[in-house]
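quick one before i forget lol
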Amino acid sequence: MPRPERAFRTQGIILKRRDMNEADRLLTVLTPDHGKIDVIAKGARKPTSRSTGHVELYTRVDLLVHRGREIGVAAQAEMLEPYLRLREDLQRGAYANYAVELLDRFTGDSEEAGNRLFTLLEQTLARLCSEKEARLVMRYYEIHLLDLVGFRPELFQCVEGHEELQPEEQYFSYVSGGVVCPRHTSGSAALVRLPLTILKLLRHIQRSPFAQVKALQINGALHDDAERLILGYITYLLERKLQSVEFIHRIRR
């Protein structure tokens, strides 16, 4: 079996950073080919360091990583995309924080993340900077992230009877991960009401490219209901509430 290269170059999106020692930073980076990795940016906290300003949160960077026995070292770091609006707009920055926390919670070990997750997060950060309706960007991100990590919600068949759903009010089961029709609600646990308008919205988001989804005109009440349903499902899966969600709600208030 060939030995892994001692160094590799990769693009990455910085998910987390923590201070280490007096001058270093420990970065958690999502890469397209190496999954989610931790690397040390030595001297990154020094004002004179060449990497200072190139290892900001929620930015896309080019890294040269030297493999270590336990953790890699970022020998070079160059910012490729700063996503400036995420720093200029508090709410959009909060959504970026939520997107990153959600991905981090669902992926766990580094090998679970890959190219499609990298592409989805990269596109989402760019859309948060460019699109008018940030909440629609986040609903699209949630639905497609759940698909990539193996928790795709079933929106087209009853998860109990497996028959095609009729155009009527349905129910959603967090436990079963999908829609339960009115004829199979008996004995199903953790059901929440699912109006037809929300079901149609989630179906459209799940099966359509974002170019089609962004054209939708959605009122605030429908946004709220769709968000409540998806966050309920995510909270059930993770068995915890996300800190970033609470921060988003505080900003809105």
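fyi DSSP finds eight helices and eight strands in the chain.
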